[in-house]
Design goal:
It is a single chain. By secondary structure, this protein is mostly helical. The protein has a domain of 40 residues. It has 2 helices and 2 strands; from the N terminus they run ββαα. A two-stranded antiparallel sheet has the order 1-2. A hairpin with a 5-residue loop joins β1 and β2. The longest helix is centred in the middle third of the chain and has 22 residues. It is elongated, with a radius of gyration of 16 Å. The termini are close together.
Amino acid sequence: MSLGFHRRPDGKRRITNRQIDFFGWILFILSALGFIIASIGSFWGMVGSLFFLLACIVFIIPFFRQD
């Protein structure tokens, strides 16, 4: 997994699209955890939140697999 910053020819750091995607999925996972906490006591809210968390985890798997 290569999520390190890359340098442009002028020496400045450049964040890649892959890094932005990864950080976005981390934020989605944090949101799912917040929804789970907020839905304590609500069966259907909890089920939906858990499915949302599961979907986020499935979408982040390609970041940890070798191509």
